[in-house]
Amino acid sequence: MKPFATVLEVGTSLNNHTGSWRTERPSYAHRLPPCNNACPAGENIQEWLSLAEQEKYEEAWREIVKNNPFPAIMGRVCYHPCENACNRVTIESPVGINSVERFLGDKAIRDKWAFDRPAAKSGKKVLVIGAGPAGLSAAYHLARLGHKVTVKESLKKAGGMLRYGIPQYRLPRKILDAEIKRIVDYGVELEVNKKVTNLAEVVESKAFDAVFLSVGAHIAKLTEFPTSPRSRVLDAVAVLRDMENREKPKLGKRVVVYGGGNTAMDVARTAKRLGAKEVTIVYRRTREKMPAHSFEIDEALQEGIKIKFLVTIKKYQNKKLTLGKMALDAKGYPQPTGKNETMETDCIVLALGQDSDLALLEKFPGLEIADGALKVDSRMMTSHAGVFAGGDMIPFERTATTGVGHGKKAARSIDAWLRKVEQPATEKHPLATAERLNKWYYAEVSENKRKLIDIAHRTKTFDEVQLGLSEAEALNESRRCLSCGNCFECDNCYGVCPDNAIRKLGAGKGFKIDYDYCKGCGLCAAECPCGCIEMTPEDI
Amino acid sequence: MLKQVEGSHAVAEAVALCRPEVICAYPITPQTHIVEGLGELVKAGHIKDCKYINVESEFAALSVAIGSSAAGARSYTATSSQGLLFMAEAVYNASGLGLPIVMTLGNRAIGAPLNIWNDHSDAMSLRDAGWIQLFAENNQEAIDLHIQAFRIAEDISCPVMVCVDGFILTHAVEQVDVPDQKQVDAYLPAFVPAVVLDPKAPASVGALVGPEAFTEVRYLDHKKQLRAFDAIDRASTAFKSVFGREAGGFIRSYHTKDAETVIVAMGSVIGTLKDMIDEKRKQGHKIGLVSICTFRPFPTAEVGAALKDAKHVIVLEKSLASGQGGVLAAHVRAGLHEAIPLTTLIAGLGGRPIPKNALSEFVEKIGIPSSDELHFLDLKQDIVDGELKKTEEERNARLRNGAARGR
Questions:
Q1: Separation between Cα atoms, residue B20 and residue B75, nearest integer Å
Q2: Closest residue of B to A3, CA-based?
Q3: What are the phi and psi torsion angles at A120 (to 5°)?
Q4: Angle at B306 between CA B372 and CA B315, to 5 degrees
Q5: Over the stretch A427-439, which tens digit does the pLDDT of each residue have?
Q6: Options 3.40.50.970, 3.40.50.10050, 1.10.10.10, 3.90.76.10; which CATH number does B2-243 get?
């Protein structure tokens, strides 16, 4: 017989619903991770890192390709704004998201993973003009949504600037080819050497239900300075494009590159690999103002490329180059000093930016064009219904990843437009900021960095400079993700709840709060490592 | 077997003979040697099937004992002084849940000021916590009471605290008769718990109970304490038949038959008192002694009966209820005829010696007063008078200064 009152039936302590004492209510929030927020392609980075850290690599890859069909390419050429936004920097250094993406992309190629089956055929036909990152991304997403897609490309091969702008040592062509082939295998019709010269004709032909324009920006911006007939002045776009020909451009032993962007770095490093002994980048401002990414400048310097800051080209006669020295004024702008210096060079390569070739739009009235770029609305549609545009030809940041994002967004808009449905407004969750993290719970773990091949090798060949991570490294790297603002089932709340009011719903399903017993003490919220629990006042 | 051993080690050996299954304790002077001794015995394999659990505090020590006892293991712990206060909440829990834990209390004063020596303040502070409290007169009784304690505790499902004067007993090397295992096994049956936490028959222990049941729970606790008299009686009677010597029980009387003055006391001071009484008796004084072995439940009726013919009762006690007087004295008063004057003699606080001569002089001096009085043995009157005077002067000065500032 059980003693009176001191020994009771099981569960009798649950008779007292302490939840009635609550003045604040905890709940699991889903905050927008800063990496996701920063990704121009709109990848759900936190989600695929989470899958990767569970060694579910194929699922992780499938999560990436929901938004970006080029994990292996972007895992090399993306400037990873995600990493710049990563909250882990407040602990030691950002998660090497780009490295993990590349690992997954390479594994997908090696293991021959194919895209998910597309949606049921819509019967609609879409033309994509230009097979760069934006065009191919749009084509892929449209195909995924069930549409018949034709891509017309003016050049010999698809890829756009990925092929004709980014050197092989940054993006091996077999990787590029493999990821393009996967899109072609997906049912996208690719027509190369098919330059569309007149959009009006295409639209009037009614052969397509919608058009996506993504012709890129392949015309080099030029500048004028006195030259003599024997002075060789080239442009970076042409040099890099010609690198895809069997016969490589001949630049000479001494090369000067004019400009300070990533293209300047690419062409300078290419010149070095082509055998130039002296490669000098000439830039009118300081290193801090250089638009090129810092790591690209570093890699160029490592390879023996010299950079002259605060100089402009005055004249280039025969092989003699005269540079005008600049000085920063009080506001930090470069101003001519009137002083000159000279140097000898076999050629100058101009890397001053690019313009779009919009000739195909000339006979197509009513499109809004400003500063050489085509204007689109928030759906990526031009002022002509059914004609959409994206990538480098619209006024936006010109990166491959941005192009991929444009392609995806345009594809979804085209899909909604074709199906005559409103695109559902996507809810944007509040940002998972670093202040919300409980950093005490995270140990310092240094980044698994990708190794670079040795300098001697780099300057003589076009072999890929950056090596990939091993599986173990990629796994460790993905495990550095803090899961900012979203529950990763660490069980902390479950452990600290003094009322045992947290219910486990099983692996991957998170937790539920039993409000019959939750007193609203807030311990779970205070002790959540990733800041995903929010307290809101009860209506009392 | 007769041995010359330290009191703490004698207690450790006695506990070991009782085949405890879980021992958990946190060291505190003067109890430390007991649990060290047990630790050595467990480590050396002298106690079979026993787990010695290191804990981080006294609160944990008794909490672990509560858990192990509720799971059906014979459980033991020991503490002293502040250690007992630190585990106070668990002390109530153990009795409230009816868990037959045995705990040695190596009696020691409670600070502040910090003091590590003997008095009974610790035991008295938790006298109402629902535990049976037994006081040992000497190391032999300390051994014998521990063996009885397990039997009493398990008989009625109530924890038992065996109070052993710190240093005076715990650190004294004396000759003791340590029983052999066969005797103890014959005396102490295997533990059959009344409550067992068992995953196969789940139950809630110590869950929330509302006003509708709490009075009844407390009433039953009181009844259990009253039933403990029978259990204590059974235990001491059986003890005599198995071991051939007397130990435990409620009270013991010494030359009370014709005594006009009867001293009441408990613990190790009994020995001194007996010597003093022997001397006084030789001088023709009619003086006797009642020693209290069981303080909880308090044997009011037995004490009253033992003192009914006295003309004056002196309660010598090693604790003080500030603002009231003597704790034991108040208990004795409850059983005493109102016409008999009772003198409370506070002695031995914080380890102050209680010399025979001082006791003798006190008894001589007080004679037979007409009403109840409170005295402190060997109080340094000049010090307290000076301090009281100084305090009063300082207070007046403060008030004057305050008044001046106010203006």
A1: 6
A2: B195
A3: -55, 145
A4: 35
A5: 889 999 999 999 9
A6: 3.40.50.970
Nearest CA in chain A to B195: A2
Question: Which of B205, B213, B220 is closest, CB to CB, to A7?
Answer: B205
Q: Does residue A274 contact residue A304 with C-beta atoms inside 8 Å?
A: no
Domains along chain A?
Answer: 12-30+487-537 (3.30.70.20), 34-113+437-478 (1.10.1060.10), 125-218+356-419 (3.50.50.60), 220-354 (3.50.50.60)
Query: What is d(CA B282, CA B280) in angstroms, rounded to the nearest whole number?
Result: 5
Distance from CA of B352 to the nearest CA of A (A): 43
Query: Which tokens go with B45?
Result: 């394999």
Give dist(CA B165, CA B80) in Å, integer.
10
| Spatial separation of the C-alpha atoms in residues B242 and B230, rounded to whole Å | 18
Candidate from A3, A9, A16 with C-beta closest to B204: A9
Burial level of A62, CB count in 10 A (0-12/13-18/19+)? middle
By three-state DSSP, how is residue A210 classified?
strand
Region for residue B391 given its phi and psi (left: phi exceeds 0; alpha: psi -120 to 50; beta: otherwise): alpha
| Residue B320 tokens, joined | 């003080």
Task: Please indicate if any CB of chain A lies within 8 Å of the CB of B202.
Answer: yes
Residues B333-354 have a mean pLDDT of 96
Candidates B192, B204, B216: best to mutate against A (most CBs of A within 10 A) is B204
Q: Do A7 and B204 touch (CB under 8 A)?
A: yes
Q: What are the pLDDT digits (tens) for B148-189?
A: 999 999 999 999 999 999 999 999 999 999 999 999 999 999
Assign residue A371 a region (left: φ > 0; alpha: ψ between -120 and 50; beta: otherwise): left
Q: What is the pLDDT of residue B407?
A: 60
Tell me what ipTM this predicted complex has: 0.78
Q: B-contacting residues of A 12-31, CB under 8 Å? A: 12-13, 15-16
Q: Which two tokens stand for residue A294?
A: 């810092």
At A411, which amino acid appears? A
Domain B251-376, second-level architecture: 3-Layer(aba) Sandwich (3.40)
